[in-house]
């Protein structure tokens, strides 16, 4: 977590189209990059608990239940000056995470405070055998990794504004030549309530909105079943459809290709971000596995050594003494043979030379 800002900055610069990245240990947002930017103030969401916030609670539970990245939106984001954006939330499970979430509290806008005392439940279970099902938001087991049970650690969330998603396609940039400019709107067929009844995700028109109607616009469906995306783009030239002129269809074809590029960019962006996070977790688990293996190998090598070595004296040396002497005297006279490994014992008592 100490390198969160540096890692988040690298991901945003490398993949593009990402507005911000969030980290929410045990559901409480504690780290966001960037914290602020033009038109964005992420300080507002620090401390937000995704389990209790009614705007995010259902999506948070979906991410935990599915154990896969879950897309939410498009919807209006308050921390981004009420711009429309998309959230992709991934639940992280770890063997290092505690079974029960820490105690937490959430204050609703109406002044009501909800307190979740998960640690008390854990102590009660340990002492009296009570079932954790008494508080379903206190413990979330994950997959079993290397024979060990993992538990929920927190959320990693990616936020992408629609304007940032469209920027690489140069939809809203004015051309330096006399090429035709287009007005467009993108609608969601299953809109979030914050988008209004029509589900307007993004609308671009330099002219007065009251003078603009998309009744004669071309409708282009944008569907990605894997992400539950069902959008429609309505597109028309600024000022209405002109008579067919030379080069019109080529420009229109470029616009259609740009729409498909938008679709591909959205899919690739989500895939590589999630894949990168998964690979980093895999490398971390492999490092931990090698450390455990090194400890076991060291212990096995230690077992192969005799804890209390056997000391023997040649029969001829013993008879030459003619009396009993102390162990220290025998050792100082170099009369003792130390057998401190299994191999030495085997060689001594299985060789053709009679044991002393």
UniProtKB/TrEMBL annotation:
<keyword id="KW-1133">Transmembrane helix</keyword>
<dbReference type="InterPro" id="IPR042240">
    <property type="entry name" value="CHASE_sf"/>
</dbReference>
<feature type="transmembrane region" description="Helical">
    <location>
        <begin position="252"/>
        <end position="274"/>
    </location>
</feature>
<keyword id="KW-0472">Membrane</keyword>
<keyword id="KW-0812">Transmembrane</keyword>
<dbReference type="InterPro" id="IPR006189">
    <property type="entry name" value="CHASE_dom"/>
</dbReference>
<feature type="domain" description="CHASE">
    <location>
        <begin position="29"/>
        <end position="188"/>
    </location>
</feature>
<protein>
    <recommendedName>
        <fullName>CHASE domain-containing protein</fullName>
    </recommendedName>
</protein>
């Amino acid at each position: 977590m100490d390198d969160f800002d540096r890692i988040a900055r690298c991901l945003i610069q490398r993949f593009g189209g990402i507005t911000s990245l969030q980290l929410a240990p045990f559901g409480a947002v504690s780290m966001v990059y960037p914290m602020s930017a033009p038109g964005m103030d992420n300080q507002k969401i620090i401390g937000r608990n995704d389990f209790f916030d009614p705007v995010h609670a259902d999506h948070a539970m979906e991410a935990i239940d599915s154990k896969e990245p879950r897309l939410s939106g498009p919807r209006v984001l308050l921390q981004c000056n009420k711009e429309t954006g998309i959230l992709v939330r991934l639940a992280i499970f770890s063997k290092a995470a505690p079974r029960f979430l820490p105690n937490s509290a959430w204050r609703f806008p109406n002044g009501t405070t909800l307190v979740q005392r998960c640690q008390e439940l854990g102590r009660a279970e340990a002492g009296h055998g009570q079932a954790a099902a008494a508080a379903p938001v206190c413990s979330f087991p994950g997959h079993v990794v290397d024979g060990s049970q993992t538990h929920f650690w927190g959320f990693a969330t990616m936020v992408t504004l629609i304007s940032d998603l469209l920027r690489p396609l140069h939809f809203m940039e004015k051309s330096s030549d006399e090429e035709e400019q287009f007005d467009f709107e993108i609608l969601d067929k299953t809109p979030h309530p914050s988008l209004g009844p029509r589900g307007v995700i993004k609308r671009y028109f330099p002219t007065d909105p009251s003078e603009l109607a998309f009744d004669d616009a071309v409708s282009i469906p944008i569907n990605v079943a894997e992400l539950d995306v069902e959008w429609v783009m309505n597109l028309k030239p600024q000022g209405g459809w002109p008579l067919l002129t030379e080069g019109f269809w080529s420009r229109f074809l470029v616009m259609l290709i740009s729409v498909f590029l938008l679709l591909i960019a959205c899919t690739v962006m989500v895939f590589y971000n999630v894949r990168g996070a998964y690979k980093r977790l895999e490398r971390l688990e492999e490092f931990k596995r090698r450390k455990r293996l090194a400890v076991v190998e060291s212990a096995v090598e230690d077992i192969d050594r005799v804890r209390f070595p056997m000391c023997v004296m040649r029969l001829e040396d013993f008879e030459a003494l003619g009396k009993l002497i102390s162990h220290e005297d025998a050792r100082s006279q170099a009369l003792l043979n130390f057998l401190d490994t299994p191999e030495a014992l085997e060689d001594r008592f299985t060789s053709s030379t009679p044991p002393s």
